[in-house]
Amino acid sequence: MIMKPEHFDRLADKSVQVLSFRTRLIVTRRILREVLAQDEREKTILRMAIRQLKSKLPFTKSKLIEVEQLLSDCRKANRELLISYGQMLRDGHHAFEGDLGWEGLCDVLCVNAVHRKEAGEHDKGLFGITWIGWQFEDSSTHYGSDVTGGGPITRAVGAAMQEWMLKNVDKLPDPFAPGGPFYGLPLYTQQPDGAMVMNTPAVTVHSAAGSKVVASKPRRAGKSVTPSKVATLFADNENVSRHEGGQT
User: What is the DSSP secondary structure assignment for residue 2, as one 8-state letter?
Assistant: First the structure.
C-alpha cells in the first residue's frame, strides 16, 4: 500500500523523538518499509523506461543518459536514508534494548517465539536479530524467505554497518589471516594493464641457519606456477612449509 507523502513526512518528523522507545521503533519500521517500497517502485519504473529508450537508440541517447542518471540518484538517495536510520539504530541500540528488554524487542520486530533462543545465541539484543541473524526480523510471518532480503530494521542496520566497514577498512582484521573467513583463498594483484594476476603463496624456508619467510608476490608473466608444481614443491621438500602468518 502506497503511503501519502504528507503521512510519510509526519511519521519522519523529528517530533517522534519524544515518543516511547517502543513506539519509536514501530514508527521507524513503518518509515523504512515505505523507503524500501519507494525504492522498488522507482527502480521498476525507471528500468522500464530505460529498456524502452534503449530500443529506440540512437535517437534517444540524450534522454537515456538523463534517465540512467535519475535512477542512480534515486538509488543513492534511498540508500542514504537507510544508512541514516541504520546509524541511529546502531548507535542507540543500548537504549532500545534497555527499555524494551529482549522479549519486548522480539515482539516489536516480530521474531517468532520458536526462533528467539537461536536469535539470542550470539547477541541478545538488536544485533542478534539483525546484523548477526539477518533472517529473524518478521520471522513470525515469513521465516526463511529471501523475497524481501530481510526486514526493514535489518536492512537499515546492514546498510549502516556496510558503510562503516567501507570507510574503516584499516580498522578491520585481515579476512585472509588465519582464522579469517577468507583464509587459504588465493590473492590477486591488478597489473598496470588491468589484468589480474594470482599471487604466489607465502612460504617459510627452513635451514640450519634458521627460517626465512618468502613473501607472497604477483606471478610474473610467462613464469606462471601451476597448482601441480606448487603441490610438488610442498610434497618433495620438507624444508618448505606454508607461511601461517597469512598471505600478504
Answer: P
For 19-42, write each residue's pLDDT tens digit.
888 988 998 998 898 889 889 999
Q: Report pLDDT digits (tens) over 119-133.
A: 888 888 999 999 888
State the pLDDT at residue 7. 64
The sign of the CA dihedral 99, 103, 107, 111 is positive
Tell me how many domains the chain contains: 2
Q: Is residue 182 part of a domain?
A: no
Q: Does residue 177 lie within any of the structural domains? A: no
> Is 176 among the domain residues?
no
213, 202 in Cβ contact below 8 A?
A: yes
83 CB burial (10 A radius; 0-12, 13-18, 19+): buried
User: Based on the domain organization, do 201 and 151 belong to the same domain?
Assistant: no
This prediction has a pTM of: 0.68
Peptide bond into 58 cis (omega under 30): yes
Residue 44: per-residue pLDDT = 93
Dist CA 219 CA 235 (whole Å): 21
Q: Based on the fold, state whether residues 152 and 216 are members of the same structural domain.
A: no
Question: Domain span at residue 61?
Answer: 5-167
H helices within the chain, ranges in order?
5-12, 21-54, 61-91, 93-108, 116-119, 126-129, 139-142, 152-167, 227-236
Cell readout for 168 is 574503516
